[in-house]
Amino acid sequence: MQLYTIGAYGKEAEEFFGALESAKIEVLADIRRRRGVRGKAYAYANKRRLEAELATRGIRCVHIPRLAPPQELRQVQKLADKSGKVLKSERQDLSPAFCDGYRATCLEGYTWEDFVRDVGVETGRVALFCVEGPPQACHRSLVVKHFGVEATHL
């Protein structure tokens, strides 16, 4: 399996879907808890629109709630963003408290084999998806590190 990551922030719809197509992504693994994004510019990333557009492009979408940070952890990061006077859409990295909590809450005991089962393919091109633009500003970077694999950010 080849692993990729992609975020919505900073991308218009056609850029987002074009990046997936250019990389020949077969499965988009949505690792968000809330599968919506505020703002007209990112309406394409809302669950129904996203899944419909992916289907027209021949890309399967799977939701992996196990990898979505719970509300309590999202609050930890929100407070860190607030204290650093950083908007979520402009965040460049994650707080240490969020990272530690995410590893303990979501990744502990979750194996590569679990991921392959959840994605439904052993080979192919799979993109982890959440909203933050830079991968280091998003929990998808922690998933990649947890598996100890290389991933290409789109």
If you compute it from the alpha carbons, what radius of gyration comes out, rounded to the nearest whole angstrom?
Answer: 15 Å
Number of helices: 6
Percent of residues in helices = 25-40%
Instruction: List the strand order in the largest sheet.
Output: 3-2-4-1-5
Q: Structural class of the secondary structure composition? A: alpha/beta
CATH class: Alpha Beta
Order of helices and strands: EHEHEHHHEHE
Reported for the largest beta sheet, the result is: 5 strands, parallel
β content, as a range? 5-15%
CATH-assigned fold name? Cobalt-precorrin-4 Transmethylase, domain 1
SS elements, strand count: 5
**Quick check: average pLDDT?**
94
What would you note in describing this structure?
It contains six helices and five strands. The chain has a single domain, classed as Cobalt-precorrin-4 Transmethylase, domain 1. The mean pLDDT is 94. Strand 2, helix 2 (47-56) and strand 3 (60-63) form a beta-alpha-beta unit. With 154 residues, it is of the alpha/beta class.
Summarize the structure.
The chain is α/β, with parallel strands linked by helices and 154 residues long. Helices cover 40% and strands 14% of the residues.
